[in-house]
Amino acid sequence: MAGADGEFGGSFLLRAPSATLTPEGFSEQEQLIAQTAERFAQEEILPAAEAIEEPDYARLRSLLRAAGELGLTGVDVPEAYGGLGMDFAASAIVADHLAVLGSFSVAFGAHTGIGTLPLALFGNAEQKQKYLPRLASATWVGAYALSEAGSGSDALAMRTEARLSEDGSAYLLSGEKMWISNAGIADLFTVFARTGETISAFLVEATTPGVETGPEEHKMGLHGSSTRALRLQEVRVPRANVLGGEGEGAHIAFRILNVGRFKLGAACIGGARNCLRDAITYARQRHAFGRPIAEFGLIRQQIGAMALHLYAAESAVYRVAHLLDDGHGLDEYAIECAIVKVHASEMLDRVVDAAVQIHGGNGFVRGNPAERAFRDARVNRIFEGTNEINRLLISGTMLRRAQQGRLQLTAAVEQTMAELLDTPAATSAAEQARRALLLAAGVAFRRHGAALEEEQTVLAALADLAIAAFVLQAVEARQADSPFAAAIAAEAMDAVDVRARRALCALSEGDELRTQLAWLRRLLRREPANLDRMQLEIGAKQTEAGRYAT
Ligand SMILES: Cc1cc2nc3c(=O)[nH]c(=O)nc-3n(C[C@H](O)[C@H](O)[C@H](O)COP(=O)(O)OP(=O)(O)OC[C@H]3O[C@@H](n4cnc5c(N)ncnc54)[C@H](O)[C@@H]3O)c2cc1C
User: Structure pTM?
Assistant: First the structure.
């Protein structure tokens, strides 16, 4: 079913969007939320950064509570249960503007996202009444326990079991969960366990006899965020604490991960904005060869590139917020949520890497904010589904929906092929990327048929082209004629060209391949662009502003 703008999950593969949400278009209320979150980040989180990293969990908890007093932990929770009952846009704005310290963001995200949303979205009135007000105010901290030592990506292979008690009034949970964010500070866990042939989700209070957490993991980054195993030994959980009905666990786990991925994307753009500002500040005050390093072309170019990566991801995150707010449910935009997760996490890694480089030797020293951000960012490509799993999910969902007739992909491929022969090349980069994807998808279907779902390298190529098309659409919908859009298009289209060519080379050979490559060249025909100059100009604009400036 299509939303107000005629959009539905995957409709970006068929046509460009007619509307989006942009930071420039925030309502007064959205601006106020951004300012509140930003002020909290600057005045409360950053000054406590070193204490949090020690780690000091009492401080972390009190900061979560302070965020709760401002309503920031209850944005997604309905007003009836003590929250603000706001939309996904507001939720993204908060996750984005609070993101100045990875450890806090992960604790906040695990609490407000995967820790609270299963209950907020799938709980019954009684369960919500009992727990949601405490979670909304962060008087209680939430956590989400799905992964196990032997089952991360393959989460449904879990071994934790829930057995019905003899009198049928409770379940007895036994097993061990692994890498649980907030485990050391959580009061309420959403635990997924096997109930016979199905998976169920349980609300488990941390003080229930038989619940224990393991020692803290010694992680590469996120030193202030608690990550522990959760051990369950014959833990008696009342039947009333089964979430969403028995056997509904897998449904809940995957729906929630969609929002988790979207919110992770939002936190990544906030992290990148913060890193960019620090890098600019450093570049303006650090002198070399008698000048601030910010005046050197190679530093400016890196700053420009950082701002461009951020702008692209920011456009995509708020575009997905716009889609999620059309009320079609969490499953509808699974492809788009996975796109944002992959794109924003990879964007952040590029930005933190440039930030370390701009800080020179200081950027390599333990405790420097750029060094910390570099370490903290890495896990974003691993949790909420690794980026490999998310790439497979993007293409796999596209193909499945096409087979189900939910997405008219075959017709779109045929239209692209027909247009190739008799219409001039599209000028919009987003449209070119979309058609390159359809061309590659058409060739892949023809070559592999139903077996395509086993061809991971082809699926990853299709996912990369889908990511490029979606992000470029988001950038063009934000402001098609901006210098940002032109520079992002110039860089992205080089990547699209390489990715599509490589995919075709893997799918065809001989004259057939040569013909397909000729189609691709025709499809991607563009005016040459001076990307170096664009990056330098955008870098100069950022340096003068002293922060990210669009
Ligand atoms: C700091 C941190 C916090 C976390 N917080 C939580 C939490 O709060 N709650 C929770 O439940 N979990 C949490 N996790 C667990 C996290 O979700 C898993 O680590 C993640 O899903 C990957 O699972 P895995 O580690 O078992 O890796 P594996 O699944 O073993 O993957 C190893 C490698 O194989 C690849 N791979 C796996 N399957 C495939 C496939 N089918 N095709 C191609 N490649 C594949 C992966 O992409 C990866 O590169 C956290 C992890 C960390 C590090």
Answer: 0.97
